[in-house]
Every structure is written in C-alpha cells, then in structure tokens.
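User: Second chain of the day. Same drill as before.
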Amino acid sequence: MEERERLANLKRILESPSYRVAYQDLDFLTDPKLRPTRMELELLKPELAFERLNITATIVVFGGTRIVPRAMAERSLQQAQARLQLDPNNSRLQRQVSIAERLSAKSRHYDLAREFAYIVSRACSTEGHCNYVICTGGGPGIMEAANRGAYDAGAKSIGLNIRLPMEQQPNPYITPELCFQFRYFALRKFHFLLRAKALVVFPGGFGTLDELTDALTLRQTRRMQPIPIIIFGRDYWERVIDFQYLADEGVIDDEDLDLIVYAETAQEAWDIIRRFHDSAGTADTPPSHPPPHDDASRLNGD
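Assistant: Same format as last time:
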C-alpha cells in the first residue's frame, strides 16, 4: 500500500461511524434496537438529578395547555369576536367565539394553579430547601401557572417536558437544572408519580385525562403509594367523566370514588394534602403553618 493510499484509508477509518465511542455515537443510540437503553437513560437522568438535589417528595399539577392568563384569554376572545363581526353568519367563526368564551371563563384556573403552587412552595420551604417540590409537565397553560407560583415563592420547581410534533417549549418559570426533556411518555409518567405526595388536576384535554386515569388505575390497584388526588372544576369534570355512573354500572367499586376529592380554592387543596398526610403519619408530612393569605392573594396581579 502506497503512502498516499495508506493515509487516505487511515482518514476513512478515523471518520467511520464504527470508530466513534459508543456513548457519543448518536446514530447508534437512535437505532430502534437501542430503545431499551434510551428508556433506561430517561429513567436515570432525572433520577440522578433529583438525588443530587435531595428531592424526595413532589406535588404534581396537571391541566390543560390552553388555559392561559386572563388577559391573554380575553385578548383571544376579542380577536374571535372581531372576526365574527366581519362575517356574522359564519358558523365556524361562531363556534370559535363560543370556544374562546369558555376558555376565557376557565382562565380563573390559571390563577388558582398559580396560587396553589405559591402556597405549597412557601409553606414547604425551609432554609432554602423545599420539602414538597411542585412538578408539572413543563409546558404552557396550567403547567406554566404552577411553575410560576413556585417561582413567585422563590422555590425550585420541576418541569418534565415531552418532545412533540408541534415542538412544545418549556415554560420560563421552571428551575433550569430541573427541566427535563423526554421522548417516552411512559418514563415521563413514571417520574410524575414516583415521588408524588399529591396529584392536583385542573381542567384539561386528552393529556390530562390520560395522566389522571393512569394515576387512578395505579391507586385503585394499589400499585403506587397512597396520595390524595384533588380535582379542581367539579362541574367540568363531572361532564367529562361520570365517575358515579361507572360505580352504578358496577365497573368500579363504590370505594373507588373515594380516590377523588374535589377542591374549589387553593387553600382548600393544600389543607386536604396536609390532613391526608397527617392522618397517614408519613415521614414527609408537610408543615401545618401555611403562609398568610395576603401573601397568596397578591398573585392575582403580575
């Protein structure tokens, strides 16, 4: 082999994908046969971060991405109304106004989620450490509101974001070192519930339904730790899922209805969590001294 040919072949060797160190070879790691390895990495990466930051207990908040701050919701409603004025008989535009009105009415849940997370984060923060860390899916809407409430309180919060075709971005209120991006919904769900001391659910769509029913199934079958599952928006949820009808039809037990408790205010939800863990005598029982109400009420503004 001539010198020129030898050097050219050596160059091809060094540039060959086979010569890459395995853990630095993205083409190799994204191969379908490496799915088990990728799933293990998605389990371990947040796990190691939580261990490093001594996060052992979370309160998980779920809810719709389309429930936004009141000003934003009202602006969307005004825009929909303006479009309808230009074409009053357009049924599609009429429906857009109706939906915008409903979403505007739901904007109060954004405020409730923000206030709830603020109350929890203030009550559980001691010497720079938060015993109960707010955890969300890291996206917009209700998730943003909860991360924002923790941010207002000067506390850490978690965002478990997911890769979606519409390129969902994490909201800007998550603690940077506690924002994770997932490929697999299953691993994301695992981290939602592994350390959860409560699940708080606001109105939402398919994703919220999926996460709620997943937790209910695990609680019903006793495959996860006892936690309160608190639902905001009783009128909404009783139309979305008729839990009583499921019991009446015999497909769930009457006792399964006790897995759910409704709340209408942020303070009420926090009191439910404290009573639940007080009665259970858990080691991570939250403190019984919530912050003054006027601290939380200031969150109605920006």
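Residues 38-69+107-300 form a domain with the Rossmann fold fold (CATH 3.40.50.450).

User: Great, on to the next one.
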